[in-house]
């Protein structure tokens, strides 16, 4: 793989700097280490990184995306835990239920990754909060046409992300 030496050099040259940046953002050295590694995993999946003019800018962009995904996933998990806390005490999910919900949250996070914030918000308000397009438009202060355009973008994005995931599974290839 020709990209491997470039990734190794990028890692050696910028790992410490990126870890320090993430540590300042998160306030936790362990989380920063995890997200630094996640960022470099994304670098491994990138094409043609040998000709980067601004490697720190590139790494910072990737790290911000990893950080936003982390925050989004954490917010989804916290929302589920809040909903669970509101349940009667007699309701205790089994380990299987918890694993299924966590898997659903991670799938949702993957599907929404890369989607503009407003389009993501429109989709979640419609599907999770069961708001109409008109209600969403009023709530976020945009036109009905904008909500419909964002909804179309979000649904198309999720559909295409789902197709990409299905193509990557062994069953889809056979």
TrEMBL record:
Q: Which residues form a coiled coil?
A: none
This protein's record includes keyword Repeat: no
Boundaries of each RNA polymerase sigma factor 70 region 4 type domain copy? 106-158
What keywords appear on the UniProt entry?
Sigma factor, Transcription, Transcription regulation
Q: Which GO terms describe its molecular function?
A: DNA binding; sigma factor activity
Similarity-based family: Belongs to the sigma-70 factor family. ECF subfamily.
Q: Under what name is this protein listed? A: RNA polymerase sigma-70 factor (ECF subfamily)
What positions does the domain RNA polymerase sigma-70 region occupy? 10-75
Q: Which GO terms describe its biological process?
A: DNA-templated transcription initiation
Which Gene3D superfamilies would you find in this protein's record?
Answer: 1.10.1740.10, Winged helix-like DNA-binding domain superfamily/Winged helix DNA-binding domain
Q: Name one Pfam family in it.
A: Sigma70_r4_2
């Amino acid at each position: 793989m020709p990209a491997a030496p470039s990734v190794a050099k990028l890692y050696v040259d910028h790992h410490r700097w990126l870890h320090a940046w993430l540590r300042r953002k998160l306030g936790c050295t362990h989380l920063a280490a995890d997200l630094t590694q996640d960022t470099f995993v994304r670098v491994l999946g990138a094409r043609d990184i040998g000709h980067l003019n601004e490697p720190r800018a590139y790494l910072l962009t990737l790290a911000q995306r990893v950080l936003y995904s982390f925050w989004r996933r954490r917010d989804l998990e916290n929302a589920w835990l809040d909903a669970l806390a509101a349940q009667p005490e007699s309701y205790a999910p089994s380990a299987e239920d918890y694993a299924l919900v966590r898997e659903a949250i991670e799938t949702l996070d993957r599907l929404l990754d890369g989607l503009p914030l407003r389009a993501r918000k429109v989709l979640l308000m419609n599907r999770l909060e069961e708001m109409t397009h008109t209600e969403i438009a009023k709530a976020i202060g945009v036109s009905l046409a904008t909500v419909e355009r964002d909804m179309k973008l979000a649904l198309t994005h999720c559909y295409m992300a789902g197709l990409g995931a299905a193509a990557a599974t062994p069953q889809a290839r056979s």
